[in-house]
């Protein structure tokens, strides 16, 4: 069996093959949904007692009370002091860059604004931070300190006063890099809880865990189902699907570089998807040869192999333009334009979580430290959603101050429309402000 | 029985009374959820045929095919030509003002941006419109032409190329004002379908109804449940709860004006909530007297009375500051500061969908034509969400172009962090770009 399938857009069966390749269902298992609904209702009803029971059952952590599940600032700082100096420097350098980028984002699109129209009415929007947010951090093998930075720093830049982190610690094992990242990112409180019970504690509040206004961060199917369930009572970020990379190559990037970029997505998870599009068949051959040569050197070879066999593809396109069109139909989470003139193709690309331009811009640099957020829309949701950002930790309030003169102009319009809708109190509220009423 | 309850923050039982007053559950009926899931699955499987069957059953509309359910541009223009000239002028004036405001919003927070850092790396965000959106417009008594403007115009300003509207027309009755508003707002296609079947058609696409990227607009419990269900496959706006107004008064506004503003919310629906907060008990007496005098003159008296009896309140506060704190705990959809110095209190108000400042700024002026959107977060969700806006019809893609020099700096950081997370392909993708590698 070959490592990765080869497709060609010129083949008669391309559309069908491509649709099969792309298939992934966001539907949640209804058994999981039922179980999650029970856990949520139980935590809503019994609070801390329920959280303690589920934590004992699922994470094998028996403690006397919730206080034993809070990880204090002293322990976070101790974790930061204990990790290797090179790791601490890397975490701090990444945090600085992520913070700098998100501060630019705040300036570019996160500030209040207002203006006065010709009648002296003031109109605008006031932008304010959320009061308190919850950050879900997975435990076990998928515990990523970089995700702590990527979720907490935008909240901090937005001005959120209280960032609560939850992270399951099965059997009591705590990940020192995750705790160090929480210290670097300025997380305010950390609880060693996870699963649907942690989402419930954040959404409804318990005697110990304060209720938050929004929950962000990735998790397993139970966490995703719980977030979807509490959506509306609190805000949530997107429900994440498997991670994906799409590379559009013009054949000028060293094949080993592109091969390793495809691997770096595939190593996440066997459902992860790595796709390369290129109009140059010889280049596809070269990348495939690189992949076959480099793969055995990877510790996560088995996951990479399963991911590539199941969902990977090297696709020969008729042109770079066609590659851009296919990319738009996918709306990939990560999109590399590994080309000599990336700025030539970028305007053709309408949908993507993040666009990595040029041979030096490996996705991994963006994942860790370029500055932009690595929490990105997956599974085609880049058609309608955006990277996690400062704007996810802010909300807007419209501002309206109508002048006496303005009320005369607006009152007539509002009155006519309100009568048309059969809402007479609306009409009369407008009419009462007219100075020429009898 | 009095028309509206009076509360005082100084009373011993205030907190309990206030909690009872505020109680409203966003939980969906599970019988409705099950029925909706069936309809969605059926439309996903059978497409147009299923939509036709449900439309025949629920809207008593039997037609030969989907073509008969599309309302063409000719009919929209005919509706616009047929309504009263005053209504047409009011619709067009409102649309102009709403468009002007949302164009400011686009300039303030909806444009692409980028910068270069000290190593010559380009970082930024590209902001692009959604390709195609669906606008749900309720039929029957709650069919509001103003909502057509408020949903379609931000999409149009964002640059959405195709705006698809669905509106149920039970028994084939079409609302000419709604169709005229669609013409004014520049809606591209209109289908006379509604309910969960319309949401399914938009979310999954059928042979006739194109699949959209996001669905916005209010609807009944079936529509709300359907939107929540398809969330993730498409984007949705917020799930709307009952409408609410909170007025903070300092006693300087004519009591009749405030009374009518409270009515204008209560007339929507008997679950709507109208609350007045004021530190001046005599002023509360005056407003109550106005309410009792003015109510019998309203055509929707019965709805107003039910809403006020069930969920309304006039609350005596110790101070304006306390009124602002209570308002923050409610996070109201509509917040009027009916005071001589609204700008003095505005900075104390952290959570609200829209803030109406000063005696002339009745909520009804904002509902129709001041310019800001009237689709606002309800049921306390202003804690974490925002008015509908241009930003709801755009999405962002991060832009990253790392320079050769930048790759040397970033590569070391990324490599260290990736090794720490056990993701060696990530590390090696970064290391391959280092020019000093052996």
UniProtKB/TrEMBL annotation, chains A, B:
Catalytic activity: L-histidinol + 2 NAD(+) + H2O = L-histidine + 2 NADH + 3 H(+)
Residues reported to bind Zn(2+): 265, 268, 367, 426
Amino acids binding NAD(+): 136, 197, 220
Enzyme class of the recorded protein, top EC level: oxidoreductase
Cofactor(s) required, per the database record: Zn(2+)
Active site positions, chain numbering: 333 (proton acceptor), 334 (proton acceptor)
Record flagged with keyword Ion transport: no
Pfam families: Histidinol_dh
Biochemical pathway: Amino-acid biosynthesis; L-histidine biosynthesis; L-histidine from 5-phospho-alpha-D-ribose 1-diphosphate: step 9/9
Cofactor remark: Binds 1 zinc ion per subunit.
Keywords (A to Z) from UniProt: Amino-acid biosynthesis, Histidine biosynthesis, Metal-binding, NAD, Oxidoreductase, Zinc
GO molecular function (one): histidinol dehydrogenase activity
Keyword Disulfide bond tagged: no
PROSITE patterns the UniProt entry points to: HISOL_DEHYDROGENASE
Similarity comment text for this entry: Belongs to the histidinol dehydrogenase family.
The protein's name: Histidinol dehydrogenase
Organism of provenance: Pelomonas caseinilytica
